[in-house]
Write a structure and sequence with these properties.
This protein is α+β, with helices and mostly antiparallel strands and 467 residues long. The protein is 58% helix and 17% strand.
């Protein structure tokens, strides 16, 4: 943003200088040239008036001699021609290479007018001298030549001064534009960095923006207020979860223990009833644990870390292998070892545990569960595929909601936990039918930076693992 502001201001300053300096230079140049031309014409007319006595009366003219001497001292040149086109007087010494042509003298005598030409670096003005006789025939022609070198030097100096002014203005505009860009953009950059740190889990992050436009300072104050409330909310939620965990688990454990003691001395009918009560207590314990897990997943704001997906899959498949063998289910994993993702620490393990547990509950003996990973999507695609009873479209649409279960005795919280953990890390989860029957859960996980995840990936062996 700072760069865009600086470039915009610099463009405006440049356009302003361009539209001001160039026209000013052109107008001044035109006026200087017109003034030089007009002054030369006036001097030539004065020369014609002085040369009139010399051309109409015999004998030398002292006034003309003085005029020609003054003209020569000024590095100018003058020529006086009679009515026949013969050279009568001129400045001394005769300027080389700038003598007017005979055609010009003849044309002025015939037209009894004025001729202005500019050969090389000299302006030549030829004027007919009034003869004072009948018919208005000219008595001769005077030609004044003035060098244009001094005029050109003045114009070069003018353009140099204008260019220097424009350059100075452009440099000053550059400094001002950069300062304004930084003044306006730096607080926004700091605010953006603070928002990223807050989103990464640093709940104590606050924006230190105390400069910049008033709107940015107000935005920083609002952000700090929001961050403070969010920190209090998350800490309060975590404290509440700890209290709920302590307050509920302890009575449930005590209740289960008492039921166990009662069942030990009870008769067969009473023992059966107590066994049912113990099952309900166990189900209630699982429900409490699931609710706490969902609450933790919903309030999870952790720093993402690079995760070697293949290594985690291998570890979790190995951990669940005894359960799969006990239920006669084939549990396997496959995928390249270099697949990486970025999640909160321990989140992928918790996600896979819930998915594998759900799949084991849904797959009958002799079934197959396959956990695979591949690069794609945002960073890594993880799929847990089973050939169990599957779900209907309506069940799939509601599967990520709390308490949505299609198995008897299930809490309906496993997929809700998976969904909350995946989405809180910036990924997505989807359900689909397995070809031939069953359910496939596909996770699109965010990518991990290559420079951070390389060491982690190399430390984990590639899958497949199969049991």
């Amino acid at each position: 943003m700072a760069r865009r502001i600086a470039l915009t201001m610099l463009s405006l300053v440049g356009a302003l200088l361009l539209t001001a300096v160039v026209p000013l230079g052109l107008i001044t140049t035109a006026r200087e040239r017109a003034s030089f031309r007009q002054d030369t014409v006036l001097t030539a007319r004065a020369l014609a008036a002085t040369a009139e006595d010399r051309l109409t009366e015999p004998g030398p003219s002292a006034a003309l001699a003085v005029f020609l001497a003054r003209t020569g001292n000024a590095s100018e040149a003058a020529w006086v021609y009679d009515a026949a086109g013969r050279l009568v007087e001129h400045t001394s010494p005769m300027p080389a290479g700038y003598r007017p042509s005979a055609a010009t003298i003849t044309a002025v005598l015939r037209s009894n007018s004025i001729s202005i030409t500019q050969p090389r670096s000299r302006l030549l003005v030829a004027i007919a001298v009034d003869g004072g006789g009948a018919g208005g025939r000219p008595a001769g022609v005077v030609v004044l030549g003035r060098p244009t070198g001094e005029l050109n030097e003045r114009l070069w100096v003018l353009w140099a001064v204008l260019a220097a002014i424009a350059a100075a203005g452009l440099v000053a505009g550059t400094f001002v534009a950069v300062w304004v860009g930084r003044w306006a953009g730096r607080p926004l950059s700091d605010l953006d960095a603070a928002a990223q740190r807050l989103g990464s889990g640093a709940l104590d992050t606050r924006s230190a923006a105390r400069q910049g436009p008033p709107e940015v300072r107000r935005l920083a104050g609002t952000f700090n207020t929001m961050a403070g409330r969010l920190e209090a909310l998350v800490h309060g939620n975590r404290a509440m979860m700890a209290d709920v965990s302590h307050q509920l688990r302890t009575p449930l454990a005590a209740l289960r223990l008492r039921l166990d003691l009662l069942a030990a001395d009870a008769d067969e009918a009473t023992a059966a009833e107590l066994a049912g009560a113990q099952g309900e207590v166990a189900r209630l314990s699982r429900l409490v644990d699931g609710l706490l897990a969902v609450a933790r997943a919903e309030s999870a704001i952790t720093e993402p870390v690079p995760v070697a997906v293949a290594g985690v899959i291998r570890d979790r498949v190995a951990a669940w292998a005894p359960v799969a063998e006990e239920r006669a289910v084939l549990l396997s994993a496959a995928g390249p070892g270099q697949v990486r993702a970025s999640l909160g620490e321990g989140h992928l393990e918790q996600i896979l545990d819930n998915l594998i547990a759900n799949a084991l509950d849904a797959v009958p003996a002799g079934g197959h569960i396959r956990v695979s990973a591949q690069p794609g999507g945002q960073g890594a695609l993880v799929a847990v595929t089973d050939d169990g009873r599957g779900m209907s479209q309506a069940q799939q649409a509601a599967a990520f909601r709390r308490f949505a279960s299609n198995t008897s005795g299930g809490t309906g919280l496993g997929l809700a936990i998976v969904h909350r953990l995946v989405t809180s890390n910036g990924g997505s989860a989807a359900l689909s039918d397995t070809p031939g029957g069953g359910l496939t859960v596909t996770l699109d996980l965010p990518a991990a930076p290559d420079d951070q995840a390389a060491a982690v990936a190399e430390s984990r062996a590639a899958i497949p693992y199969q049991t």
